[in-house]
Each structure stands twice: as structure tokens, then as C-alpha cells.
Design brief:
Elements: E1 10-11, E2 20-21, H1 24-39, H2 47-57, H3 74-88, H4 91-99, H5 114-118, H6 122-138, E3 147-153, E4 167-171, H7 174-182, H8 184-194, H9 208-224, H10 245-254, H11 259-269, E5 273-278, E6 281-282, E7 286-287, H12 299-318, E8 321-326, E9 331-337
Parallel strand pairs: 3-5
Antiparallel strand pairs: 1-2, 3-4, 5-6, 5-7, 8-9
């Protein structure tokens, strides 16, 4: 049956309004239809505009040029993957990733437990490592690695039957997570080198209070000089799972991610199917054609990379501009260029 936190009833369409749905089979089917509507299409991105913005904004390790539109041959792609496997899927990295496994963590639909592998004889772990390296290098990713299941977590204060307000946390095969952990170092490096300082989320030794302190100091400074502080709030609703993959690959190139690492993730995320967990069991499968993977080891950092271009464009567009404050009228008189 499941706990009260699991999706037991919902509204038709998946939102906060609509006809009540409570029959188990109908709940599963309605949830599947909602997942398919959200994730079953690749989305749309104008890569020409993306590349133009990259050239204009700068700030990335890749500044544009002919190589940006060059499609590598199959041999070039394979060589890049082989190089990335040699650099990141090392025995040391694999052992470290497996060693982080703890009891009680969810496993994927294949039922394979990294925690069990952690306590297996060394010869078994070595054999597993060799098989994983070969599978990734050849692109022969097991189908079970592409069968994702989403646990629909409740948000505080939300209605239990409003599926659109639940947080989808995707559970994948443990070995897929191990591979992602091994290549995590490359994504962290790219993030540290290209993500603007204004973004501190999911970054070592940085956190939210840093941003609140800066905001407070900005207001204090504006008060002292009788200036104005303007803040724009943008809520990227369901950011991780709304990212268009073609745009993600391009921004990863802009941020200097090793192309072999990007190709590994592309292979892991290609032809993925998803299912929702409900109180009445799992839904039928549907295609997952976009998103960086909510709950993925590298999902957060990859999402930050996807936002780098937006931050660079805003930063350059606003640089050297500000408000003139009319002290008599206490209003903004207009713009000025520095």
C-alpha cells in the first residue's frame, strides 16, 4: 500500500485542480500521462542563438568559432570517450565511489547493491570495475541503467494530491551512480573554473548565508550613499528536469568539460525511460527526453553549468549601467553609462 507520503490520490491532469482520481489503476495511468507530458518531449532550443550569445558574452573556456559547429566523427568521439575512461574511471576512483556506499540506500530496478559490492572480495570488485569500464567505453550501457524510477517527495505545506507540486527524486541503477561519481571530478573542475562567483549553490566551502550577507551589505551601502538596490527574482520551476539536452551539451562545451565525459553522460541519458512511484505501485514506463537528472550525482553541477551562459549574458548586459537617484523626488531618474 505505501505510506501516507506516497501518491495515493490525485487530480486529473496532475495539478491542483481537476477531477479527483482515486482508483489505483487510474492513479497510475494519470500519473504516467503527467510524466509523459512533462518529460516525453525533448523541448526546443535555438542553438544558433546559444552560440551567438556565447561569442558575445565570453567568460567560458570555449569562446566559439568553427569548432563549435563541427560534428566529430564516430572515431573522434570514441577516442574522446576512451581518453575520459582512462582519466576518470580509474581503479582508485571506482574503489572510492564504491566505498562511499552505505546500508539502506535505494537500489535501481536491477536490484544491484553497491553496498554489497563494497563488502565483496577484492577480486569481485576488480572484475566489476573492468566490466563497467568496457561497457562505458564501448557504449554498451545496460538497459537497466536507463530505467529510472521517481520517488515523489512531498514539499512542506503542499497538498498530497497535487502531483505538480511534488519533487521527483530519480532512483537509478547503483552502477550508473558509481560511473557518475567517478566523473564528478571533471564537472566540479569545470564548475569551479567557469561558474560566476554569484552562484554558490552546491559548491564546496560555500553556502546560502554567503548570499544573504552580500545582499544585506548591498542594502546597507545603498542606504549610506542614498542609492538604489534592485533585485530581480527568477524561479526556474523544475529546473533540473526541464533542461533541454542539446543546449546542455553545448553549454558543457562552453564551460570546457572534457568532451569524452559529456559523451559518457549522453550515453547514460540516451533512451531513458521513467516511472513514478505511487502508493499503488509503479506506473508504466514513459520516455524521459530532457533534464539533467534530479537527484543525480552530477545533476546539480550540470544544472549550474547550464545557467552559466544566462549569468554571463546578464552580467555583460548590465555592466557599466546603473540608476541616477533624484534626491529631491526619491525616484530613479534614468540610466547612465559608466
Amino acid at each position: 500500500g505505501g505510506s501516507d507520503a506516497k501518491l495515493r490520490t490525485m487530480k486529473a491532469g496532475g495539478g491542483g485542480k481537476g477531477e479527483d482520481v482515486g482508483i489505483p489503476e487510474e492513479v497510475r495511468e494519470e500519473a504516467r500521462k503527467y510524466g509523459e507530458a512533462q518529460l516525453g518531449h525533448p523541448g526546443q532550443a535555438w542553438l544558433g542563438a546559444v552560440r551567438t550569445a556565447m561569442r558575445w558574452a565570453g567568460g567560458g573556456q570555449w569562446e566559439g568559432g568553427e569548432d563549435s559547429v563541427h560534428a566529430p566523427s564516430a572515431e573522434e568521439t570514441q577516442n574522446r570517450v576512451r581518453e575520459a575512461v582512462g582519466m576518470y574511471l580509474t581503479w582508485e576512483a571506482f574503489e572510492k565511489a564504491v566505498g562511499r556506499a552505505v546500508a539502506g540506500k535505494a537500489v535501481g530496478t536491477d536490484g544491484f547493491s553497491t553496498y554489497a559490492l563494497k563488502h565483496a572480495p577484492r577480486s569481485v570488485r576488480v572484475a566489476c570495475w573492468e566490466e563497467v569500464r568496457e561497457a562505458v567505453e564501448k557504449g554498451e550501457v545496460p538497459r537497466a541503467w536507463k530505467d529510472w524510477v521517481a520517488m515523489l517527495a512531498m514539499k512542506p505545506g503542499e497538498e498530497a494530491d497535487d502531483l505538480s507540486r511534488r519533487r521527483d527524486l530519480w532512483v537509478v541503477a547503483n552502477m550508473q551512480k558509481v560511473v557518475q561519481t567517478c566523473i564528478k571530478a571533471e564537472y566540479e573542475r569545470a564548475g569551479d573554473e567557469t561558474v560566476p562567483d554569484s552562484a554558490s549553490g552546491f559548491t564546496a566551502l560555500r553556502n546560502g548565508p554567503e548570499q544573504t550577507v552580500v545582499a544585506r551589505l548591498t542594502r546597507e551601502h545603498a542606504a549610506n550613499v542614498r542609492g538604489v538596490t534592485c533585485t530581480a527574482w527568477i524561479d526556474y520551476s523544475q529546473l533540473f528536469m526541464s533542461i533541454v539536452k542539446s543546449c546542455q551539451w553545448e553549454t558543457e562545451r562552453f564551460c570546457g568539460v572534457h568532451p569524452g565525459v559529456t559523451e559518457i553522460v549522453r550515453r547514460l541519458h540516451d533512451e531513458v525511460t521513467g516511472r513514478y512511484e505511487t502508493a499503488h505501485g509503479l506506473t508504466e514506463r514513459y520516455d524521459v527526453l530532457k533534464g539533467s537528472g534530479q537527484g543525480c550525482v552530477n545533476g546539480a553541477t550540470r544544472a549550474k553549468l547550464a545557467l552559466v551562459l544566462t549569468q554571463r549574458v546578464v552580467e555583460k548586459a548590465c555592466k557599466g549601467y546603473g540608476f541616477i537617484l533624484d534626491p529631491e523626488r526619491h525616484v530613479c531618474q534614468g540610466w547612465y553609462a559608466d
